Amino acid sequence: KKHFVETNEALAKDLVKAGVLVDTHAENYEALEKREESMIARIDDLEAHIQNNSRFSVTEDYGKGPYKIELVVRSKLHMRIKRNTIILELAPLSAMPHSVHHFLRMLSKRLWEGMAFMPQQGRIQASPIDMERLDNMDWKFENAKLQNLSFAEHSPDYKCGSYSIGFAGNPGGPDFYVSGLLDSKSHREVNDSCFGRIIEGQNVIDSIIEKKESPILGIESLRLLPNKEEEASTL
Description:
Layout: H1 2-18, H2 24-62, E1 68-77, E2 80-90, H3 97-108, E3 115-119, E4 123-130, H4 138-143, E5 164-167, E6 176-179, E7 193-200, H5 202-209, E8 217-224, H6 228-233
Antiparallel strand pairs: 1-2, 1-8, 2-7, 3-4, 4-6, 5-6, 5-7
Helix pairs in contact: 2-3
């Protein structure tokens, strides 16, 4: 039986070469390949459309940028409350418009106030969990329709690195993280949607990751700072 199958397969190949038979497997593969290429092109067009809409919406709602965010972290230990301030700068709209827009909309609705901000394997994860009661607060993001990104966004002009801010996973969200100082062997964030960096308060991030701070941590406030450059240009 095996010899019969091998003989017929060899004969079929010879007939295809001679032009007597049509290689339907090759035709099917070529058709599938073209269909896949067409689908990828449509997905790319859709993602580009979302990015263009995001650029327009961010500029209309929040100005031209740069976009700097004040993050106030609250720690609690033995009924003593301590606050630390971190300043983030978001990525340019030319690089990561969808992620920046998604994050700014979360800020506008004040979704992250009172949420957990916990160290986790070399970075700090912001999660929709009430920092006091430890209740799951996913419903807030669901109601606001701000759970996940529409797609995992990446740009060759804006890569993850030390003290990056990003949405982890594919497509990513609603959780976001702040990474600490990364060594040359760390590639964990390479596939994440990184959309900003810490520009002030890196020492706060380091101390939290090194567990010098209280393990009970939360986000007290997260707000967009006034754009001094844009204000100066209008004077």
